[in-house]
Structure formats: C-alpha cells, structure tokens
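Data card: per-record layout.
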Amino acid sequence: MCFAKQCMQISNADLKKLRELEESLWVAETRFNKKYMDSILSLSFFEFGRSGKIYKREETISAPFSEIHARLPLKDFKVHPITNDVVLVTYISAVQYDELEVGNRSSLWLKTSTGWQLQFHQGTVAK
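The structure for this 127-residue chain is written out next.
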C-alpha cells in the first residue's frame, strides 16, 4: 500500500526499530516508564482508544503501572511509508484481560533528528 505518488522505501533498520518501539508499548516495564514514554511520544501525541476515549500525551505518560498481558510478536505487523520521514504502522493486538480483547491498531510515526516519535495511535475493536 502506498500513500504517496511513489512508494517510499524504508530501511531494514527502521523496520526493526519501529517493531521494537511499537512492541515496547505492550510491555509494562517500558509502557509505564515515564522517561521512556516522554522520549518516544511527540509533543502533540494523542490516541483514540479501543473504548472510544481520546487520550492526550500527558495522560498517556502519567498512566499508573499495571500488568499487560499482550501477545507478542504483534500479529500482521506492517509498515506503510507515507513519506521518507512518516510511516503508518498497522497490526492486530491480542490482550488478555478477563476475556481476550482483539483490536485493529494503527500508529503514525515521525522520524526526527532524535529518532522515531509516535504522533498518533488508534485502536479499534475487532471481532
């Protein structure tokens, strides 16, 4: 899938890094590490959660620690380059709460001088 007139190419190193970053959001030790989250979330980050709630950057960074029972590696992980410095990442999440919750996920990542930063994330309930 291409969003620009020409398909952009992304390096194997960037593919690996984006998977690592996205999966780190599903690991409690990194997801609830305020310093880490501050470094990877853009200043204007926001999220449309599976619940329909909108989360802002500060809410995300200051969320209290809790266990995450996500299945890794992420299923159907794909990176869709939009420009040389902007990609859309898509995948399916599976997280065990009282019941298994499955969601279609998308994240917009921006490549900056300090590395990849998450600009936007959306979770949608999948049946």
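Known properties of this structure: The mean pLDDT is 94. The CA atoms of residues 63 and 87 lie 26 Å apart.

See the next section for split statistics.
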